[in-house]
Amino acid sequence: MKFNWEGVMPAVTTKFTKDDKLDLKMFQTNIKAQVDAGVHGIVLGGTLGEASTLLESEKRQLTKSTLEVVEGKIPVLMNIAEQSTKGAIYAAQQAQQDGASGLMILPPMRYKSGDRETVTYFKEVAKNTDLPIMIYNNPVDYKIEVTLDMFDEMLECKNIQAVKESTRDTTNITRIINKFGTRLKIMTGVDTIALESLLMGADGWVAGLVCAFPAETVAIYELQKAGRIKEAIEIYRWFLPLLELDINPKLVQNIKLAEVYTNIGTENVRAPRLPLFGDERKNVIQIIESSLKTRPTLPAYKNL
């Protein structure tokens, strides 16, 4: 059950063809770009992965397709976002059977569970799989906060090991470290405060814009880890207008459009989502094109 909760783990997008089938060729192109850039893990089937629209069979295809590319070099995590405890347990067991290395688990979807219900949900899933688990704590978008007291109860399950910290309150990182030390690993989950979170002690970054800009994302992580903070900040400042595309209701469309510009994705989304249109599209293109004109030359960040 040893798992290194550290580094950059892209929450990858799911690639579709124009006739709404999985585009596994382009999907593998993107995964290869992530691996080549030096990411430390892959997260499948998250919000960026359009999880709510995917069939069970498609999630299993994505797991197997990713495993083909990574060849055991880095862990592959599957996101669990189900409506029932029974469904979450089944999805976790399927992911384990398919060869996933770990799980990212959201609170129950649709029903706003209370604290006791939420804790019981996570613990029941943990008891029914051997895979290491990262709890996704995002009260801003999912309206359920996993508090420190709730984590205190859940950590009796040895495979609950990490939190994707998306409260958008960087002081929460210090609170977690003060209470749990290294028992609960912290993966920051908000692109626009990622560097700040890493500097405050987060172990890694579950990232979004990494889908289009893998090298820049990994460079920021590796530079700050090596203590080369000024260089990390310079890249991060360049990156911020792009990172802000992640904290937007159209984050999937935004990031997929960015992937087109970096030649590792397509704009195809699954309905009811539609590609960006009109002024909204023009604004995103302006941000992407402007950023590409000033794209920084990266240091040899892999050899730090």
Automatic annotation (TrEMBL):
Pyruvate binds at residue 206. One of its GO terms (biological process) is N-acetylneuraminate catabolic process. The keyword Lyase applies. Keywords: Lyase. The active site is at 136 (proton donor/acceptor), 164 (schiff-base intermediate with substrate). One of its GO terms (cellular component) is cytosol. GO terms for molecular function: N-acetylneuraminate lyase activity. Belongs to the DapA family. This is Dihydrodipicolinate synthase family protein. It comes from Polaribacter glomeratus. The lineage of its organism: Bacteria, Pseudomonadati, Bacteroidota, Flavobacteriia, Flavobacteriales.
